[in-house]
């Protein structure tokens, strides 16, 4: 009997046993969920429908998926709660329940609309949107001492790229220590394309990464590299070191893994050097967003980055 024929009979039997009166969430909660780690580095959470010495059949996107045993590094049971798609209003960002790697080309197509160009009277940088209601991230040094901030986004409409400009950008929170700033686009009410935030602690040296940003004012530029080191220390703060090419203008932009997750925020490179770029790990970013009310922007506070006029010298 072929694998496909076996799967069809197995699934048909499963349907007959479960019946149609049970809700989807009840069915899912009765399944045994596992973390399946592949030798290729990918990881998936899925119910295991069948297992023998040669293969494992898991349920993936409501379809049976056959995986050869020699492709699997480990399988561990995981107790998870089935959650609805309702978003916690207090959480400003999203994460992927299942991370699955894809080509850079495919992930760029999925993520590039969420990458924006941040502009101020003093210069420009990059940023990225983290929620459908327009919250976005950039570096503090991109907007430092500025309150007139605008953003440029490129959206694909009818197979053509359309440039959108936003002039009403509000500063929500800033944390200069980690060079992170939370902004909100307020002059548009539509739902924005956004990107999920991943787990930088799961990165492995040599893992392929890519960046989308605005180097030297060249919008929508893409570069690819690898993770050189995940814990480079500068002034007591950990940075991701990458060979991904970054230049002035990439600051504040996202560094992605091949699952399309933001695993770092690009903020610097070594001058007169190539292949030595650095990004703020996503665990700092998540902590900042989870506690953003602690770092609320206050234009009356000198630490918030407002540019004050130098007081005149007193005359004697």
Describe the 3D structure.
A hairpin with a 7-residue loop joins strand 13 (208-213) and strand 14. This protein is globular. The chain is built from five helices and 18 strands. The protein is mainly beta and 316 residues long. It has two domains: 3-77, SH3 type barrels, CATH 2.30.30.100; 87-306, Thrombin, subunit H (Beta Barrel), CATH 2.40.10.120.
In short:
The chain has 316 residues and is mainly beta. The chain has helices spanning 3-18, 24-30, 104-111, 140-143, 282-290, and strands at residues 33-38, 43-51, 55-60, 63-68, 72-77, 115-120, 123-129, 135-138, 150-157, 160-166, 169-175, 180-185, 208-213, 221-234, 237-242, 254-256, 262-269, 277-281.
Q: How many separate domains?
A: 2
* Unreliable parts: 4-30, 80-89, 305-309
CATH topology name of the largest domain, in short, is Thrombin, subunit H
Q: What is the mean pLDDT?
A: 82
Number of helices: 5
Measured distance between first and last alpha carbons? 101 Å
Write a concise keyword list for the protein shown above.
38% strand; 316 residues; seven-stranded antiparallel sheet; 2 domains; mainly beta; single chain; SH3 type barrels; 18 strands; Thrombin, subunit H
């Amino acid at each position: 009997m072929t694998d496909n024929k076996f799967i069809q009979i197995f699934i048909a039997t499963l349907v007959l046993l479960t019946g149609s009166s049970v809700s989807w969430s009840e069915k899912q909660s009765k399944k045994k969920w596992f973390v399946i780690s592949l030798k290729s580095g990918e990881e998936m959470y899925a119910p295991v429908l069948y297992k023998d010495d040669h293969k494992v059949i898991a349920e993936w996107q409501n379809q049976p998926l056959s995986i050869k045993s020699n492709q699997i590094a480990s399988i561990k049971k995981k107790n998870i709660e089935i959650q609805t798609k309702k978003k916690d209003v207090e959480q400003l960002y999203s994460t992927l329940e299942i991370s699955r790697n894809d080509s850079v080309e495919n992930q760029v197509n999925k993520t590039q609309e969420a990458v924006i160009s941040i502009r101020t009277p003093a210069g420009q940088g990059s940023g990225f949107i983290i929620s459908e209601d327009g919250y976005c991230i950039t570096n503090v040094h991109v907007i430092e001492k500025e309150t007139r901030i605008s953003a440029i986004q490129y959206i694909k409409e009818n197979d053509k790229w359309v440039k959108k400009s936003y002039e009403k950008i509000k500063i929500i929170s800033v944390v200069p220590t980690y060079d992170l700033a939370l902004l909100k686009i307020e002059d548009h009410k539509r739902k924005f394309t956004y990107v999920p935030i991943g787990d930088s602690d799961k990165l492995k040296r040599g893992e392929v990464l890519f960046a989308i940003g605005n180097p030297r004012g060249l919008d929508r530029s893409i570069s690819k590299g690898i993770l050189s080191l995940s814990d480079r220390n500068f002034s007591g703060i950990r940075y991701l070191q990458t060979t991904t090419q970054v230049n002035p203008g990439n600051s504040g932009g996202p560094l992605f893994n091949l699952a399309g997750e933001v695993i770092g925020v690009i903020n610097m490179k070594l001058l007169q050097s190539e292949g030595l770029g650095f990004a703020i790990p996503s665990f700092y970013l998540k902590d900042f967003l989870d506690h953003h009310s602690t770092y609320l922007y206050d234009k009356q506070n000198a630490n918030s980055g407002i540019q004050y006029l130098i007081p005149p010298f007193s005359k004697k």
